[in-house]
Amino acid sequence: MPMFMPILRHAVAGLIVVSLADAALAQNKPDDWLTRLFQPSATEAVPAPSGGGHQWSGQSGASGNPLMTANAIRAAAADFPDCIAGLWPAAESRGITRATFERATGGLTPDLSIMDLLDAQPEFTKSPWDYLDILVDDARIARGRELLAQYAKAFAAAERAYGVDRYILAAIWGVESKYGTKGGDRPVIRSTATLACVGRRRDFFRGEFLAALEIVQRGDVPPERLIGSWAGAFGPTQFMPSTFERYAVDFDGDGHRDIVDSVPDAVASTANNLKSYGWVRGEGWGYEVVLPQHFDYLLAGRAKQMTLRQWQGLGVRRAVDKPFPRPAERAYLLLPAGARGPAFLMLRNFSVIMKYNPSEAYALAIGHLADRLRGGAPFVQPWPRDERVLTVAERYEMQQLLARRGFDIGEPDGLLGPRTRVAIRRFQAATGQIPDGFASSVVLDRLRRPQ
Ligand code: CA
Questions:
Q1: Domain carrying residue 414
Q2: What is each CA distance from 38 to 7, 149, 277, 319, in whole angstroms?
Q3: If you average pLDDT over residues 114-140, what whole number do you get?
Q4: For the whole model, what pTM was predicted?
């Protein structure tokens, strides 16, 4: 796993850590969605299905990967027609006809602007509260409720068939594409063909390109409607072509798995995907909780799973004045902003949402938007909005300073993964701070002081 990819994820997750294991679970969503979401130009652009207007900078990529130098990109682009032609045998073995292949690839040119996005490295990152402010706003709540009412029958049927909460499905629709209004403007065949032949992720995208051809071959989605993000995610809930292959269903019974233009197909396909990831029917995603005074913060983190009853025994209670409805459910404690922010007990379904996109901030936004769509209230506890989010450079520095003091953080990578979090806690504990593992500017300042 190149270190470059998770940085992008992490950048979006803000202060919340995305581990490499999580990244592996993401199977089909590379840096795509997360990058797109936090490039303001990309999220604010009105999708134009032309796919035109994107320009490559002509610069070498920031990853330093030899396949990403400007010269390597130019050479691969010159070789593009041969590369595509070389994919015919693999396409044929997947049942794609020569006619489909030629229609899809005849005269196709690579979209080199994607290379800039493949190696985009944000300098600044978002905090969990900024992230939630953007994704769970009044407009998104109102529109989601309208769609839930308009497609009540489809949502109810999908909920019955797959056991996945309709509000979660609507929230994924809302967050992934702003209810289908911001799903990208690039033809999926061209994007995946480009990435299959140019740049540092060719092996992965060869499979996506072939899967996209299969979608066209089967007539599930017409090629002109197969429009998506630069990495090839398309439709209201941003399926990658290979995700489509695995999970798309024809729920309205018209013979096509059209997740782009059929709401029943899109909703049911997303439900089918979550069900295969292990969604537990009848359980929620988690609860906002309040911790007692003198709480042992070393109990936080995914490694410590306990039943809600056991958490209750430690003095943890719901932020709203209600009991846990099913106290035997197992959960872990998440403190997205450290001890100064809200606390959450996360159930198994929270991890299922993270398989859809491997970010705790993402999963929290989905869970919270779902609750708001259902009629729930905003979180009770405030976020530490005065807290400054560390830059990527500062994260590197923090890791180097921890390593210099003898804490094991692995290789400094600008990511604050589980090992770094443990190291921060140990440093906090050793210096009389609350050991919440939160990479605050206070911790960085303390680390910068001479030992
Ligand atoms: Ca259909």
A1: 392-448
A2: 13, 29, 26, 30
A3: 90
A4: 0.87
